[in-house]
TrEMBL record:
Pfam families hit by this protein: adh_short_C2
Lineage of the organism: Eukaryota, Fungi, Dikarya, Ascomycota, Pezizomycotina
Native source organism of the sequence: Aspergillus nanangensis
Protein name, UniProt field: D-arabinitol dehydrogenase ArbD
Swiss-Prot/TrEMBL GO biological process terms: mannitol metabolic process; secondary metabolite biosynthetic process
Entry coiled-coil feature ranges: 145-176
Gene Ontology MF term list: mannitol 2-dehydrogenase (NADP+) activity; oxidoreductase activity, acting on NAD(P)H, oxygen as acceptor
Keywords: Coiled coil, NADP, Oxidoreductase
Source organism, top-level taxon: Eukaryota
NADP keyword on record: yes
Length: 378
């Protein structure tokens, strides 16, 4: 899938590189224009620049780099339109393993505020990837859970596995102490489907207190050749899907006159521009998610509904692992850009999502919590 053409990039970068203006006869210093220096300066400024460049070895090297060397300038901060990654069909999607040994009974002292006991939480996109592992954190923290996904069969299977894992990690619990974990179909981009899922969850659990919107996807095409129907789908799932579930759950909370917590899964792509893979519509979608969280946080603050965003960096899910195994040069590039020197894993989100949903974060709303190994700092 990835065939970054280094040669093509080099040619492109060389042809795009800007050079200082060539001095014309009119701009060459003469007695009269030297005299005018303090009054009129446009052509002379180029002249001064050129002299400065000639004298400064560092600037001169930049200006008169050896043949071909200009292709490297800015190369690591550009997108490469030859990179194309399409989101795979459902049957080609790799499955996610339930995380082992991260939850369970423990006797280390911690704040009770972090507990999600007696809550009902909803995670969209919970059948796989980050959504599944965050679901597990939510269950381990004491909440009941509704997993919502386009792939209901896998959501059902994973719901059962989450309960089995919880049972293993919490031996001796009575049946009524076990979490109630259910699976529900929804296409998050479709308002009717969202409303049906919400009604189904409320019928099965009686209520919803917390929401995590993790259904989303990315793919890579350069902006000019990105198929428009795919852009609409991408924005539909990432932006409309987040909006529809957030407003649906907030309406339900307002009708009940109770507080609640919403965590939207954005991405560091909502703040920076990733390289080298081109993905302008995804970046714009995640910027929208981040600002939606801030905007709704303000709009619903009076009703006690907190809305925050988590912006993960590069996380090693089953899907990203498959893509990077097939494209080791992309993996090396990504890792070289992360200050901590490694990609995140889905369980790096277990603490952040639990924290933001819980009362430990009760004065935090509208925040964007970046979980990116420092990527966005440099
Ligand atoms: N993996 C990363 O490196 C990374 C980094 C930053 C942000 N994110 C974001 O995190 C979220 C989860 O990503 P992931 O890596 O776990 O992806 P994933 O593909 O592993 O899981 C996404 C889940 O969402 C479901 N889904 C997709 N479209 C849907 C729809 N229309 N309706 C309902 N469910 C739908 C899928 O069936 C799948 O179970 C996404 O919003 C993604 O943009 C991921």
């Amino acid at each position: 899938m990835f065939r970054p053409s280094v040669a093509r990039l080099a040619v492109k970068a060389a042809s795009q590189s800007t050079r200082p203006a060539v001095l014309t006869a009119a701009s060459r210093p003469t007695l009269s224009n030297t005299f005018m220096r303090s009054l009129s300066s446009t052509p002379l400024r180029a002249n001064d620049e050129s002299n400065k460049i000639k004298k400064d070895p560092l600037l001169a090297a930049t200006d008169k780099a050896p043949q071909g060397a200009l292709s490297d300038e800015g190369r690591f901060a550009r997108t490469d339109e030859s990179l194309q990654i399409e989101y795979p069909d459902d049957e080609h999607m790799p499955r996610t393993q339930v995380v082992q040994g991260r939850g369970g009974m423990h006797f280390k002292r911690t704040l009770a505020q972090y507990s999600l006991e007696n809550k009902v939480s909803l995670v969209t996109g919970g059948a796989r990837g980050l959504g599944l592992v965050m679901s597990q954190a939510i269950v381990a923290s004491g909440s009941d859970l509704a997993i919502v996904d386009l792939n209901k069969a896998e959501a059902e299977e994973q719901a059962q596995k989450l309960v089995e894992q919880f049972r293993k990690e919490n031996p001796g619990l009575e049946e009524e102490q076990m979490p109630n974990v259910t699976a529900h179909y929804s296409d998050v981009a479709n308002p009717d489907s969202v409303n049906e899922a919400l009604a189904d969850i409320i019928a099965k659990h009686g209520r919803i207190d917390n929401l995590v919107t993790s259904a989303g996807f990315t793919e890579n095409f350069d902006a000019i050749s990105y198929p428009y129907d795919r852009i609409q789908k991408l924005w539909g799932v990432n932006v409309d899907g987040t909006y529809l579930f957030a407003t649906g759950v907030a309406k339900h909370l307002m009708e009940r006159k109770v507080p609640g917590s919403i965590v939207m899964i954005g991405s560091m792509s909502g703040t920076i521009v990733n390289v080298p893979q081109p993905q302008a519509p995804y970046n714009a979608a995640k910027a929208a998610v981040r600002h939606l969280a801030a905007s709704l946080a303000v709009e619903w603050a009076g009703q006690g509904i907190r809305v925050n965003c988590i912006s993960p960096g590069y996380m090693l899910t089953a899907l990203t692992r498959k893509i990077l195994d097939e494209n080791p040069e992309l993996r090396d590039k990504w890792i070289s850009l992360i200050p901590t020197g490694k990609m995140g894993t889905p369980d790096d989100l277990m603490g952040p999502v639990t924290f933001l949903l819980s009362d430990a974060a009760k004065y935090i709303t509208g925040a964007d919590l970046r979980v990116d190994g420092g990527y966005t700092l440099t």
